[in-house]
Amino acid sequence: MKSRQRISIAQTQRLQLNLGLTASIRILTYDASGLTRYLEEQAGENPHLALEPAQAVPGEWLPRWTEALSGLGGRGGASVELAASAAPSLMAHVMQAVDGLFPSGRPRRLAVLLAEALEPSGWLGRPLAEIAAQGGATLPEAEAVLARLQGIEPTGLFARSLAECLRLQAVEEGCLDQTLSCMLEHLDVVAAGEFTRLARICAVTEAEIVARLRLIRGFDPKPGAQFDAGSAAVREPDLIVTRGEEGWQVALNRSALPSVRVSRPEQRPKTPQARAAWSQAQSLGRMVESRNATLLRVGREILGRQEAALDAGMTALVPMTMAEVAEAVELHESTISRVVAGTSVDTPKGTWWLRRLFSGRIGEAGPSAAALRAALTRLVAAEDPSAPLSDVALTEALAAEGVTLARRTVAKYREMLNIPPASRRRRKKPGRAG
Prior knowledge:
Elements: H1 2-29, H2 32-45, E1 49-52, H3 61-70, H4 80-86, H5 90-101, H6 105-116, H7 128-134, H8 139-149, H9 162-173, H10 178-185, H11 187-191, H12 195-202, H13 206-217, E2 239-244, E3 247-252, E4 259-262, H14 272-305, H15 307-312, H16 322-329, H17 333-340, E5 344-347, E6 350-353, H18 369-382, H19 391-400, H20 407-416, H21 422-425
Parallel strand pairs: 2-5
Antiparallel strand pairs: 1-4, 2-3, 5-6
Helix pairs in contact: 1-14, 5-6, 6-8, 7-8, 12-13, 14-16, 16-17, 19-20
């Protein structure tokens, strides 16, 4: 009997810890608008919680933000910074890519049907065979269209499962090996934390399993979640970066986030329910403060490492991993992944997703993959449509900017960006015959 009582007490303590941890993690992953909604719900249920209106934040970021909202920033040609700051709905983002990939015919119809089947997570919500039948196409035809759609940024869109979503991102980062493939085939064992069993299944050591797990935690399981699912309007950024006398300054966007006020009861709560409400209000206040402090701390570290990009744009992004940032701020890598998921920052170059600022290095001394993608996009956007740049010409243009890469590497990243080869990008100049 005593043994049963001790077991019951231990289980209750563990449950309370998990509930608190779950709430803390949930708050950490919210963006400003999501946190506001959550706080409004809690304030409606807890008499000790009150929300004060968001504070207006003066500064040069406001005109930029208003301009983005009104669509004025979209003039003057395509650029990576512009694409990053537009923050369209998931459907608008995907359809823009579809227009470039599939101008007409049955492949376009299949692409549109696949786009319509996307869930807010960015995953495909219907069986591919069913979509193929609806489009009057064979399964191999649908698979070919899907393969091209899976190259749309952010990587992981149009995945048919969590494993495929993570696999696509591993391929992009160049880290998909036999061990990681094995882990993705046994995600149920990964989720259960049975690393000894997983090591036995994959015929490797537990240390190798843990190393690959760090990579998996750095991926985005729901790449579609960074878009506004129902509207093409631009969402207010979570952070603001401006240049001050002492350099770049990063601050929370207080205009997008209400302040939490915890009111102390006039007398000591007498009932268990009243004491619980007071305790929960205090805990929530501390969690929000911790969330804001962690977001600001991580944001400053990331942007401090990417000062060159703040000066020159996305093409100046330097290689940076979540593990490096985690070590610098003394947090777990999984915490960094949660913080940057869906978090945006307003900069003089546009509004950027923090997650997009992470990228591995191409080769031993090459640029970051993100910077290369940005440079390729910029070069293609500025080319003469009647004489588009071949892969060799793109390679030479990058070399002139100090980036020496093999032609096949440039071709690989061009394909990842869904940029057709030069022969398919060629357009006749207006007014010319033949």
